[in-house]
Amino acid sequence: LRDSISTLAEDQYGKIFLYDLAVTVSEDVEDVEGVKESTIVSSTSIDVVKDGTKSANLLVPKEPKELESYIDLHTSKYKAIEFPQDNEIVISHKLAEDLDIEVGDEITIQNTDLAGGTVTVSAIMLNYFQQYAFMNEATYESVFDEAIDYNVIFANVEDGEDVHQVSTNYMKDSSVKTVLVTEGLRKNVADMMKSV
Q1: Which of 46, 47, 45, 49 lies closest to 107, judged by CA?
Q2: What is the pLDDT, as a whole number, of residue 18?
């Protein structure tokens, strides 16, 4: 059991979340030395409501077609998930399980200002840690009636580059708030799981 639990970190941060760095920014910044590719998303907290309420991290990519290089959306049977269209949302499986949500259900979502509306669940994704939801920009602006704020850059580093040096390069920009190194997060989660 311990071995299967400790592999969850590798599955989460090696098979679902594929990016090397998550860079929280106050505004978009240029790629730094050592970055192979990057994309920007909006990351915000929402409540999902249906037979109860659960919080989730809503991710909205500026360029949905680019997302597959950074996050692999797939079902628990490893079937690829198509990115949601207008008025649709993809949610993580624990969220669906906790709130008894199935594909095709209409759910209510709200942001921290209690603005929100109803969207249709187009797919349920495999995910192990925290709860996530995905939608496109048009749906976000329609549901929350506000312009989107792109605030997180997912970046992959060039082969052979030191990911910690690339992180340091990002931190030199005053628009960068934090840099999360996935490699470190994967190790921390794996270590935590081994001690369970």
Answers
A1: 49
A2: 80
Q: Which residues of the chain, if any, have pLDDT below 50?
A: 1, 190
In this structure, what token pair is assigned to residue 154? 């997912």
Q: Over the chain, what HEC string results?
A: CHHHHHHHHHHHHHHHECCCEEEEECCCCCCCCCEEEEEEEEEEEEEEECCCEEEEEEEEECCHHHHHHCECCECCCCCECCCCCCCEEEEEHHHHHHCCCCCCCEEEEECCCCCEEEEEEEEEECCCCCCEEECCHHHHHHHHCCCCCCCEEEEEECCCCCHHHHHHHHHCCCCEEEEEEHHHHHHHHHHHHHCC
For the question of whether the overall pTM of this predicted structure is more than 0.90, the answer is no
How far is it, in rounded angstroms, from Cα 73 to Cα 78? 9
